[in-house]
Design brief:
This protein has 287 residues and is an alpha/beta fold. The chain has helices at residues 3-7, 16-19, 32-43, 77-93, 107-117, 131-134, 138-150, 165-172; strands at residues 27-28, 47-51, 101-103, 122-124, 159-163, 186-197, 203-205, 259-261, 267-275. The protein is globular and about 40 Å long.
């Protein structure tokens, strides 16, 4: 099943209460709703989850292998400039940020973070992998997104994450689907709120008949000894021997009957979607 088909099935991925929520509309910082988000971010205690910057005009992913820049969809020259403006805008608005910033290892996420915040302040983590690079570790990746969205953030600072649209939809559902989350935008998330609650035993089940085409030897979860990304400065590296690469043209979808269990008690609320450096007429690649 293609990832676009999976995104059309939010009812399979969320508890019932989240299904009925209206989709969010991205807002600029100078819009009244955006100004309210900025004011809340200045107080700290929130999570900023950025989608990677602009990729319009760039080739689609081809190899789906980590480390293969030529085989990935990369940010465009406009995306590089957009990333830098994001960092500048956050500083100008006086929004306090925790360091290091966490970014996924696919180059479009990593490059966005490094251009926005400086490479020295970025830690790359498999916790923020794109879904179609995660392979049989997809359940673990989604749980890591939930953990990073729901874990408490100290006052007077905000956790910054840079990743991808699809895992965000798989975790938070229809509220952030469709045109709600353009490239370069940020979801503003309140950890510990009741907007998303993963009850004990909550399951996200793949539709019957969905196939898993993970490469031979891919691991279904982080092996024993793998370290989760610490929320305050420590690194989370791909466990030794874990694989995220996939053969050219292969697709990763959930195996039949697969259950992605949210961490018990995971809670967060998406307060809004903020665009700090919007590009008119852009935001969604055709891939």
């Amino acid at each position: 099943m293609h990832r676009r088909a999976l995104l059309a099935l939010p009812v399979l991925l969320l508890p019932g209460r989240a299904r009925a929520q209206a989709r969010l509309v991205p807002v600029a910082a100078d819009h009244p709703a955006g100004a309210a988000l900025v004011a809340r971010l200045r107080q700290g205690g929130l999570v900023l989850f950025f989608r990677h910057a602009d990729t319009i005009g760039m080739p689609c992913d081809a190899s789906f292998r980590l480390g293969d820049r030529a085989g990935q969809r990369n940010i465009s020259p406009d995306g590089i400039a957009q990333s830098r403006r994001i960092g500048e805008r956050l500083a100008a608005l006086g929004i306090p940020l925790a360091r290091p910033v966490l970014a996924g290892p696919v180059y479009r996420a990593r490059d966005t973070a490094e251009h926005a915040f400086g490479a020295a302040d970025v830690v790359v983590t498999d916790s923020l992998l794109a879904d179609d690079y995660a392979g049989a570790r997809l359940g673990w990746v989604l749980d890591e997104h939930r953990r990073l969205f729901s874990a408490p953030v100290p006052p007077a600072t905000n956790r910054v994450l840079v990743g991808h649209r699809t895992p965000a939809i798989m975790v938070a559902g229809d509220k952030v689907a469709g045109r709600a989350f353009p490239e370069g935008a940020a979801r503003v998330i309140a950890p510990g709120s009741a907007g998303f609650v993963a009850p004990q035993g909550a399951r996200s089940e793949a539709p019957q008949g969905a196939r898993s085409e993970a490469p031979q030897g891919a691991r279904p979860e982080a092996p024993q000894g793998a370290r989760s990304e610490a929320l305050q400065g420590a690194r989370s590296e791909a466990p030794q021997g874990a694989r995220s690469d996939m053969p050219q043209g292969a697709r990763f979808v959930a195996p039949e009957g697969a259950r992605f269990v949210a961490p018990e008690g995971a809670r967060f609320e998406v307060l809004g979607i903020l665009e700090l450096a919007p590009l008119a007429g852009r935001g969604f690649h055709a891939c």
